[in-house]
Amino acid sequence: MAGGILPGRIQNRVTLRVRSVEPYSSELTGEQLGVIADIAEKYGSGIVHVTPRQTVEIPDIEGSYVGDIDKLLSGSGLYTGSSDRYVRNVIACSRWCLYNAFPVTDLALTLNRSYRDRVLPGKTNISLSGCDFSCVRSRTSDIGVIARADIELTDKKCKKCSLCVKEPLGCQVDAITVSDDGVAVDTKRCIRCGFCTNICKPETIRVRLRSFDIFLGGCGGIKPQEAAFYKNVSAEDKLFDEIEHVIKRYEELADEGERIRDVIGKAGLEAMED
After folding, report:
1. Is residue 190 a part of any domain in this protein?
2. What CATH number has the domain bearing residue 59?
């Protein structure tokens, strides 16, 4: 079946997997929600399901109506996708999360525009996390990205407000201490989320450098596997270049049905370089 059109449990019926082109692949406007609701009521069973990949599934659609529904979707910035060997919906944590070291939603939008119709040797998930909490499972995706914020102390005097160490806003890994001598950061504990720089009003703590860690070969399913660290890149354009390079190497090295972890298993992580 075409991408995003899945066989239904009822004969001659399908499930439509729907995602948004605008405003962003995992965000929906009120108008788009209305369109999805109308389709579910008119053509389906009146219910929808939100998938782990941040898409919406509309079940129990009669196959003959798919063409008409596709026109309704495209007129609202929605489209069917993804399934089978199509690149899955590129997901990211929310743009309003306080812990973002770097907002990654626009990066996911760019990647979805680039890869939404790309057919690869096997199922491929790409996930972008704004910090090390990795809420969107970047460590168990075929290609996972985690934004990093390396911090530093400035010459601006700490006011000892203690927001950076006390709940609920304080450092989640106890990497910061505040004493009479000022503030100190344990670099071995720090996970480079950068959240402390968001709440430090005197700017005693600031971001020195933002970058992205790339992980490859993770997956969920019946045999979950954690992704392996691949490399760190310092800019968005380099991140896009590396993802495209990995996908091309995957296409070159994989047999049909193999995922990135299978390629790494037989050829090694270094094979993804060149």
Report:
1. no
2. 3.30.70.3340
Instruction: Please indicate, yes or no, if residue 171 is contained in any of the structural domains.
Output: no
More confident residue, 23 or 268: 268
pTM of the model: 0.89
Specify whether the CB–CB gap between 134 and 92 falls below 8 A. no
Kind of pairing, strands 205-216 and 143-153? antiparallel
Q: How confident is the model at residue 102 (pLDDT cuts 50, 70, 90)?
A: confident
Domain boundary among 80, 101, 128: 80
| Buried residues in 256-269 as b, exposed as e (16+ CB within 10 A) | eebbbbbbbeeeee
Surface-to-core class of residue 272, CB atoms within 10 Å of its CB (0-12 exposed, 13-18 middle, 19+ buried): buried
Q: Is residue 15 part of a domain?
A: yes
Is pLDDT of 3 > 80? no
Do residues 11 and 143 both lie within one domain? no
Q: What is the mean pLDDT of residues 186-206?
A: 92
* Residue range 53-79: mean pLDDT, rounded: 91
176 CB neighbour count, 10 Å cutoff: 20
